[in-house]
Amino acid sequence: MHRILPALVLGVALLIAGCATVDEPSPPLQSVAAENDTGFAHSYTFKPLEFTPSAPQYALPLDPDTVTNWEEVVAVLDLGEEEQALLKEHGFVVAAYPFGLESDIVRPYRTLGEHDVPLFLSSDTLYHLYHLQFDETLCQIEKDTLAADLLALDIALLNASEETYRQSSGEAKEAARLNMGYYAVAVALLDPSGVTVPAEVRDEVEAELALIGGQAGLAPSPLFSYTEDYTQYRPRGHYTWTEELERYFQVTMWHGRMPFLLNATAEVSEKEARIQTAAAARTAALLAADPDLMERWERVYEVTAFYVGYSDDLGPAEYITAMERLFGGAKQTLTPDEVEALRQELLTLPPPSIYSGTGYQGVESPEEARAVLNATMGFRFMGQRFVPDSYVFSELVTPYVGEFTGTGAPFTMIGGARSVPTGLDLMALLGSDRARALLDEGGDSAYRDYDTVYGRLEADLAARTETGWHQNLYWAWLDSLRPLLDGCGEGYPTFMQTPAWQEKELTTSLASWTELRHDTLLYAKQSYTLECAFMYPEKPEIPGYVEPVPEAYHRLAALNTMTADGLSDLDVLDPAAEQRLSGLGEVIDRFTALSVKELEGDPLTADDRAFIRDAAESLDDLIIAPESWAALVADVHSNPYHGIVLEEGVGDIDLIVVACPTSDGEATLCAGPVLSYYEFTHPLDDRLTDEAWMRMLRKDPPLRPWWTARYAMVE
């Protein structure tokens, strides 16, 4: 057995320690914040930036006479009276991109340059480019390594289960039969032409495959009896690109969602629970006995844990450890008494933290909800991962939050209850005072017990150490957004000190988080040289401006380095990806240095001005076609009772026009691309793919969040 296994046991145990019981709804984030829960934090290095903001200021509302290029830019960008009014009021405005629909975040820099518009290099650009590297490296590793490892595991475990079935009797034989069916489904999903399904389980396997292929909704599992949400098996994200990725998506979803339950439920008898426990124990023992199989399992788990984190459920590590403690070793065949002893031992471990729909049923109280959650405790072969936003969302909806106490019809309310969460919940808990104010203003916090639950979650997140924020790429990505949510005080450019700018940065953060959820759906998504410089009569050359958020860029640089170093340590980083990550790191460092210069009022060098002016050249090398398109969608929360999912989307590129300060107290209009953001509910049985989302954007796009109208004119 490889020595990584105890570390995995510790990581999973720490992650889910302190989970709620029916009588004591204590949140797991307290344990997640534990100082010894380091995960992959050793790959993250960060030294705080030191700078003193003292950027030039100007007065608001803007006087167009004090803006060097007002008339020229307004004309080129076709800014109407409403856009101009917002620009004067806030010092910036987000508008529809005037040169046609655009979903490439780099191309607008070239187009704007061709029209002699000074460039505004947005933070959105770098966050989007990091998303591309994250999604591409994960996709490449899945294709090159993980799919083959899973297929080898599933074939070996299917063959072993068949052999055991022939040699066993009683409940041990039934456990082997369950494993035969489970791994036959997996092999058939990954390699449909290369599997011979054992006759003894053919009917159940074919029925499971039909449900998975049809993605038909909630239905009893033919193999496991409990209700499963088969809409989850619709490939989404980058998994729609090839048939190979679609197969990998479905088999990984199968391994991540289907538990071998420890307890009887309304749908699973006591005997079935014993059989499921015995079947899970045999899988764990087979892994423990075969170093090659364990190495493959660990590789899949460790690489995906680096990206997304540890499983929210029990797995091979916990079952092996429990059997070693009880029996002196992992036994492949257990007597009925040993199965019961193992079951009781495992029930002393913390239950899962996030309810994922297993055995779906209605509840009327928080206590009933905890009981249903605890009843899902069991073995998942490659369990889906604990991510903080899913936990937050699961806690901030009914029944943990009570009935609506306000007026109107907030986004989160269906039938008088908080039936769906909102991305604003997460952003507020990450530190955005503006997000919390918008929750209050929109009525989305006007529910009984909302403030109580919110306060508990806020305290839990505040207790996290720096190490806790960096234990994997998922947490570190969220951490990189926090500087955007802090708000900007004295010394920052005038436009950044407005409440409207806080909402713009909130949109950037929500869009980047949407990209994170898109890329991790399966686990908790051209060079050009400007021909001439920008010249304005009797004015110094002002080629553009970098959005000055150096602390955000500094954390993003650390996240980018963590990605490269961690994947290199895991021996899964190919040379092309390494080169792209290195190039992105250089660009982020340049953005950081230029931001500090702008904030401290230092003049830019000719080289600095050239970098901004010719930004498309630097950024083009980081684009990977076809993933460079910005539009994407991710379902982040399910409500089977109302038949809906919460969808988070990034749409076509918007244009931001900013009055950037000059040293003489005036301003120059600069423009650049920014991400757009959508949040809406959608039918459960039609979980959106990126392709379907693109069609929706073209034909009948949903409305943007109501609060974006204060700074944006994009509808």
TrEMBL record:
Name assigned to this protein: DUF3160 domain-containing protein
